[in-house]
Structures are given as structure tokens and as C-alpha cells.
Give the backbone structure.
Amino acid sequence: MKRRVLAAFLTLALLVSLVPAAFAAEGKYTLTILPPTLEMKGGDVKEIQVTLTGPDVLEGELPAGIRLDHTEANNNGIVEVRQDTENLFLFHIEAVGTAETTEIEVVTVTIQAWKDNNVIASATCSVTVIPTDPPGLNLTPAGTQEIDAGGTIQYSATVSPPDETAVIAWNSSDTSVATVDTNGLVTGIAPGETTITASSGSLVASGTVVVRGIILPETYTARERENVNLPIKAYGEAVELAVDRNNVQWSSSNDAVVRVVSGYLYPVAAGTATVTATVSAGGRSYTDTCEITVERSTADVITASVGASEPLAFSGLRSRLQSQCFSVLGASLSYVSGLSVPTDQGTLYYGYRSEGDTGLGIGTGERYYVSPGLSQNGLDDVYFVPKPDFSGAAEIP
């Protein structure tokens, strides 16, 4: 009797000691995923490799009774997960459903190892799905580019998504400024600005090319004793800065016909002359010319007498200026500009009151209106004061 009780006790003790061992064995299974994180775009297909370690697990094989499965959190149809049919440790992840969103989506993919309807190990992979780039054409270099006449710049264009069969067509909006060949090579022709466009099917990208230099009017007609501010167009940042600062050298082919001072034309007598402007910028010189035709003036010279040092108010000349304006231009006088006088003959003032209160000097580029509006200078406040030692005729164009 004692032997039976002892045997039963030993058997029970053995069973009790084996139960924790079995549970401990199942707890030793470990699941790992490589890579643990993925970044994908719509349409991408990537793989994750699962490794299971534990009792009776041979490399590349699942023990009998153990299976692998997967779940996804926050998926919303963003990714599809498929287990490889031949390699059960390999899972294929495809990013889908991103065409409708511009948001970044993060999906957590969990791989689980099951045995006897229990999860014995699990691991996760964080999958970040970023929006698919919309179809487009990328132009390099980007932004506004500057070159000189005769200079070149190479453009390139790439299609997104990449398409090795894509054909790129090139175009310049103004071929008199710059041309572009079939390979995107741009050549500067003359000062100005043009748009370089690359296209492939419905995809278009463009950039601006500036050819540095200056442009004067090709021809200009002026009258004798007229004062003209010759316009000048500048292209290129350094060139524009030089022109803004009036760093321009002017010359006339015939000073007897027309003189040029700081861009102002002073037609002297009927005839033709070529005016040249030169700007130095960035270590280079940029030049252009304008042919000036001077016609005889049909306006009468307006004369007035004044004593030495006595101010001559233009208010007293207004009616005659208006009459000559209508006679020459067929229109009422609006304003007078370009006023100047040799310094050895006298000085032009705006708002002159006395020798102690001369007001302001007259600006050659300023306009002086017959009926001035708000913030406009009035013609009636213009005065000429001759030098105390001057006698003779002072000419104010």
C-alpha cells in the first residue's frame, strides 16, 4: 500500500514539475522583422523578412503546428500585406490607395506566430506611406538665368514619374533674344528677356533667360532746342543697377547736330547724328546706339528782359508758352520739363523769394505743371535769376 501511494505521489510530482517547463518553452519563441520600418509611395512594393527563434524551429522552416499571420492597424486600405506562398517567412507589402490623399499615412503591420490557437510571439513594422508625386516636368536650372549675348546655358528636363521613353521639346518665346536647340542648349542673341519652355506631352515647365545689355530706341526725332530724355532699357541685375545709378557714358557722332548730357538730348541744329550709350557692369561693357534726326523747330523763341540779379518769374511767360505749345503740338500746355541754363549765365530756382530765400534748385527731370495737382510742382513758382556779372542772352531750352 505504501509503495502505491509513493508511486502515485511521484507521478503527480513529475507532472507538476513538467507543466511549468512546457509553458516556459512556449514563452521562449521570439519573432523579429527586418526592416522594422518602411517608407513607401503609392504603387511601391517592398518586402519584410520574418525570423522566428525558439524550440524545434529550424532555419527557414516552421515547426508543425505553428503558423504566421498578420494584422494591420490604421490601414484604411492604404497597404496590402501578402504572405509569400513559397517562403512563409517573407511578406510582401504594397502601398495602394494614396491617389486620393495628400496626407502622410502610417500603418502598423503586426506579424504573429500562432500555436494551438495562441499567439506565441509577435513583432511590428511601421509602414509610412507618402503621397505619390503628381506627374510633372522638372526644369534645371530653375529660376531666372542671366547670360551675355553669345553666351550659352545648358538646360535639362526630367519627367516625373521617370519615363525613359519621354521626348522633350524645347522652345524660346523670343528667338531674337535667345535660341534653344533640341538638347536644351540656350544661346544668347541680343539684350532682352525670353521664356524657355520644355514640354513632353501635356507636361510643361518653363524658365526665364535674361540676356544682359542695354537697348536704346533705334531712331528718334527731335526738334531744335528741344530737351529730350532718351529712354534706355537695361537687362541684367548689374546692368540695371549701373543704369539706375546713372553710370552711363554718352556720346554723339555730331555735337553740332545734337549734344547729349546724362542721357538728355540737346538738339542744336537740323540734321542726323548717332548717339551712343555705354554701361560698364560686371567687368564687361554694354553698348547700344540710336540715330537721332533733328528737325527745325516751328516754335518761335520766347524772349524776356530782366536786369542783373533780378528774378524772372515763369508766371509771366505762361501764356506765351501755352500759345507756342498749341501752335507746335496742337494741344494745350500741360507741363514744362528739361529746364536748364549754363551756370555762368544764371540759376533756375523753384519757389524763389529773395537772395536769402532762394527756394530749391530746378531738377532737369522734374515736371512743372500749368495747373498742378496734389504733390505736383507748379510752373508759376519757377524763376530764373541771372548772375550779377552776366550780360547778354541766356538760353533756357
